[in-house]
Amino acid sequence: MKNIINGHEYVDLGLPSGLKWATYNIGADKPEEYGDKFAWGEIEMKSSYDMDNNLTSGDAFNNEDVSGNLLYDAAATQWGAPWRMPTNEECMELVDKCNWEQMTRNGVKGILGTGPNGNSIFFPFAGSCFKTTLYGAGEYGECWSSTPTYFENGAYSMTFLEHAFVLNEDRFYGNSIRPVF
User: Confidence class of residue 153 from pLDDT cuts 50, 70 and 90?
Assistant: First the structure.
């Protein structure tokens, strides 16, 4: 039996917070599809991703998280409540509490995280957009958190290579979003 909310499938990984993660990115219909790309804090896709057309660059947000804010959270806007973007703290929980291994699923390279309860989640190596080009597809993945960094144009992003980690990324890049509730 699949777990579904608002028409989107989720998995319970047994995380201490009780947070549930979508099994695929916004714009995808299954875990191995790349899905859509979004600049941080923007709720619509666009044809080019750079500093000149980024709506949140230069705004420090006073380090306020945007999770659930319909003006800046693509998950909440695209999928509706209770879906939202994960916070940096929630991304760190996923990274730290899961065991990670690279794998290929239905011909798509990515990484599988297995949670404390034995359930797992797959993130495709969907790459990242800069200007009009998709870079790194099949080599790495990037998923935005809802948390800006202390750098004026930065936000935290989960990065997937041979393992998972969180880093500061420039907000203008087009990255995937994996919703939570």
Answer: confident
